[in-house]
Known about the structure:
Chain A is an alpha+beta fold.
Amino acid sequence: MKFLLLMHMNPTVWDALTEDERNEVMTGHGAFMDTVTKSGEMILTQALADPSQSAVVRVRDGERLVTDGPYLEAKEYLGGYYLVDVEDKERALELAAMIPDAKVPGLGIEVRQIMFDNGELTV
Amino acid sequence: MIGEPAIEDLLRELTPQVLGALVRRHGQFEECEDAVQEAILAATVQWPTEGVPANPRGWLITVASRRLIDQVRAEHARRERETTTAIQAETRGDTAEVADQDDTLVLLFLCCHPVLTAASQTALTLRAVGGLTTGEIAAAFLVPEPTMGARISRAKQKIKAAGSTFALPAKEEWPGRLGVVLHVLYLIFNEGYTASSGGDLHRVELATEAIRLTRMVHRQLPGDGEVAGLLALMLLTDARRAARTTADGDLIPLGEQDRSRWDAALIAEGAALISGAMTSSALGPYQLQAAIAATHAEAGRAEDTNWRQVHILYKILERIAPNPMVTLNRAVALAEVDGPEAGLELLSTLDGDERMAAHHRLHAVRAHLLEDAGDLPAALENYQRAAKETASLAERRYLESRAARIKITRA
């Protein structure tokens, strides 16, 4: 079964970390990627650019309206994700707990099961 | 001259036999597997133009053995002389005699080794016994090829680390190990039949592949009732394939399927298999499930279904293999025999069961029975809850449409 392990970023929490703590999280991702790649569970991972760079597109009466993200004021935003293919939900939770962000007080990993897949993944 | 699809079928059939012969003689599962893949590749290139050799299995074993020697040379240059001599001595020996032995079953037991997770057993079985490429297996499970490659190589390392030998398991291990093999084949079939995630309800190749592999096992163990039962279950289930979805891919429940679209030949084969197995060997869960599928297949119209027999079969199944899913299915049959209230009462025994917590099937079945009992508000609530809990898009669409139907009726 496939799961998306979503990393929600909270800049207030992140900024409060020391340089060493932040480095520890970053290096931890390397180790995590290595583990899930070797086990044959990793499908893909992507980190998203800062939400100050995002835009929201709406079509109203056929007109395209582009605005800055409405989520700028949000305390949390999606920072990135891992897409994994695992034996069961229990394993997905186990992997989520191995992501370094999970250990940072104030942050957490959201685990969502994939329901539709178009089958054209070529990584 | 033999055509390319025929060559492909022949190669798929021979792959496990060639791999089995090689592993039996040289051990080193991983190295042998690579060598066999290369030999198969050579055959794919050579045979269509130069013709199929008189003894294709012998040809493949010889070529694979040569590749194995090349590999051993490259990897152990230090011990080159003695190893090569040893392998050549064996290769020169009575190839024909070894080649006559069919090691498919031994190979299947190795791939379904209990140290592996179900996902790894499945992948390794498809690759080593089914003769599919890593890319084909990856595509069937909708994962990238490197992901599947890593999974297969991890599985091979684990088998090596477990120190398993290339031999049939000891007598006392046999039932448990065969149980794992059958379960893996069942998983492959189910993955193809009802993709647990994804919008496409059928992944034909996997269901077909599972049937092919189970036929292989059945040929080797014709007297085993559970092997025959599993094969019959697959055939009887697969017979409904064409009637199971609309042109748009929406699910059609058993009771509403156009039965003229069921595959009569598959039903006949499955029904004959299961009646033969049930009269000649000890009863088991696969035989019972096949017998239930056969009972449904016998009914020309949904209303002709012998629900009393279905209920009895589920009751026996519940006794020999207790499982909340079985109780759930028995509730459906009981409702048909004694009315929806009786079914609902049986369902209520599952409420405290942790294994069923948050499982959409419990809510979906309850919704159906509530609808039949005329309690539309509760039925609606259960359909909506089930729709939220399922991880299958086709099932969600179906459950949402049932909910919508109730809303219209009530409005």
